[in-house]
Design a protein that fits this description.
Chain lengths: 312, 238
């Protein structure tokens, strides 16, 4: 439903989006993951026809975002970052305004407003002005606004930022439910969020897409390297000399030194068994082991790996 | 058209949701009445010339105050991002917002009819001048609104929009004044005297409704609405 080809956009000399290409289909929840300022918002603004790109093309539901922008906008429900709303309007008044500018038929307006109030749990605040609402409720009104015309594509920019943990879970569940039939594209810089909600992840850094796949695929990509934490009581020089001789140790860092005990983080190149092998090395040298712990490789490492490498 | 109406209704209502409309109407009527009756009792004549004569200067401060929020506030709040990603064309939003301010002006001007009606009760003013004066008031106010709307598209700061608006209206107003005209170089004289907002207004005030004056105001409004649309679209220029 969304096809993006070599999209590029720069602000002055900074390149915000650099030759980004990806596809997205109905029934997918696509997570846009990246550090702040990576180009997530800019990409979303281009897709929603708020900004235009310098080069490249993008089509949404078959319509070109530059040439047929009004058609594109009909297909999309958009919630910008931090849910900007008219604070002087009432909740119902605002949703009603949205049904008008979305040109919903008069007969359906009430029904749609009712529906989004139910979906987003706004029942308790329908009498209030938007200006009186808490951050969480504003976010929900913003979401309600983006769903009012029952769009096939939903674009949400950091929908959970500034919410408390239980609200975050609610919004995530909502996104999951919606994503069963529609295409949901949402951005975040919070890692657990994507593994909890997304069927596919795009990691974007410095305007470039650095990874694209399901959460499982990305996690397995990072495997092949094992990270082991070890704390040893023994002579520092001897230990380090020994590490340099070991084949399976691709990289080691001294993390702390404490009362004759030295802690290391060791990157092992072999598939498995690095912890065991280290244990034998320690025993053979007559040192004593106070800690041995294997770090699990997960999305976080993929993310840090990919985003760090780009910055260097 | 339905889009324009939706924007118009929303903006017009938002004037009355906030204190802006009430402050505008009260101050406008209060100041007008004071200026009007002061002249009225001093000269002791039942006529409106003093009132209409002052209007270009009163509008100069009031109208940019009404238009300053139209775009600046949207930009500041970020709501412009939702607004401009709705399936509405940019010019529809511009026209809707323009008409909302114009409607507020029309309501206020209609309320100020109390003044001439009271004069009619006391004396017998010239009906032609009265009708001409009110048409002139709406045309001139309409031009001010278009300029103020354009000023508001340029910034996200309402105070800056207000000052831009006043400055632009002020310049357009004074270039038609005699003191500027006689000091301007000869070749600028016809341009200035045509572009000046005030000269066309005073000719309407005389009770002569010339199509040239009406065309002048309508094209000025059209020109600034066009500029506003360009300015709103400029985010998408590449």
């Amino acid at each position: 439903m969304i096809e993006v080809r070599e999209l590029t956009k720069s602000y002055g000399t900074t390149i915000a989006v650099d030759q980004v290409s990806f596809d997205a289909h109905a029934g997918e929840v696509l997570g846009f993951l990246g550090p702040n300022g990576a180009g997530k918002t800019t990409t979303m603004r281009i897709l929603t026809c708020y900004l235009s790109a310098d080069a490249g093309s993008a089509t949404v539901a078959g319509y070109d975002v530059f040439e047929e922008s009004v058609e594109v906008r009909k297909q999309i429900g958009y919630l910008p970052e931090s849910a900007p709303l008219y604070t002087d309007m009432g909740v119902i008044e605002y949703l009603n305004f949205m049904t008008q500018v979305r040109s919903l038929p008069k007969s359906e307006r009430k029904e749609r407003i009712r529906a989004v109030i139910d979906i987003c749990g706004l029942e308790d605040v329908i009498q209030k002005d938007i200006g009186e609402l808490s951050k969480g409720y504003r976010q929900r009104v913003g979401l309600a606004q983006s769903l009012i015309h029952d769009p096939p594509i939903l674009i949400l920019d950091e929908p959970t930022s500034g919410l408390d943990p239980s609200q975050i879970i609610e919004i995530r569940n909502l996104i999951k439910n919606i994503g069963q039939e529609k295409l949901v594209l949402f951005s975040t810089h919070i890692l657990p969020e994507v593994s909890a909600t997304c069927s596919r992840i795009l990691i974007i850094n410095n305007g470039k897409i650095v990874a694209n796949g399901t959460p499982e695929e990305l996690a397995s990509q990072a495997k092949g390297e094992e990270i082991v934490h070890v704390t040893i009581r023994g002579s520092q020089e001897a230990i380090e000399a020994q590490f340099n001789e070991l084949d399976f140790v691709s990289q080691w860092n001294r993390v702390d030194t404490n009362n004759g005990m030295v802690g290391y983080q060791i990157h092992a190149s072999q598939e498995s068994g690095a912890a065991e092998a280290l244990f034998h090395v320690v025993v053979k040298n007559g040192w004593s082991l106070t800690e041995l712990r294997q770090e699990s490789v997960d999305l976080e490492d993929v993310f840090l790996n990919l985003t760090d490498r780009e910055q260097v | 058209m339905t889009n324009i109406t939706a924007i118009l209704k929303k903006e017009f209502r938002s004037y009355f949701n906030s204190p802006i409309a009430y402050i505008f109407i009260t101050f406008f009527l209060g100041i007008s009445a004071w200026l009007f009756f002061r002249g009225f009792f001093l000269v002791n004549q039942a006529e409106m010339r003093g009132f209409f004569g002052l209007m270009p200067w009163i509008f100069l401060f009031f109208i940019p105050a009404v238009t300053m929020k139209l775009w600046a506030e949207e930009k500041k709040l970020g709501t412009v991002e939702i607004l401009m990603t709705l399936p509405i064309r940019d010019y529809e939003v511009v026209i809707g917002k323009y008409l909302a301010s114009f409607a507020l002006l029309a309501v206020t001007v209609l309320l100020s009819l109390i003044l001439p009606l009271s004069v009619m009760y006391l004396g017998n003013p010239d009906g032609g001048t009265l009708i001409g004066g009110y048409i002139g008031l709406l045309l001139m106010g309409g031009a001010y609104i278009a300029i103020g709307l354009f000023a508001s598209t340029l910034t996200e700061n309402q105070i800056v929009a207000f000052i831009f608006g006043i400055t632009a209206c002020f310049v357009l107003l004074i270039i038609g004044e005699d003191i500027v005209l006689f000091n301007a170089p000869n070749w600028l004289f016809p341009i200035f005297s045509y572009l000046g907002l005030g000269a066309h207004y005073s000719s309407i005030l005389r009770g002569v409704l010339d199509s040239r004056d009406i065309i002048y105001y309508l094209s000025l409004i059209g020109f600034f609405l066009y500029l506003s649309t360009l300015s709103v679209e400029s985010r998408k220029w590449r």
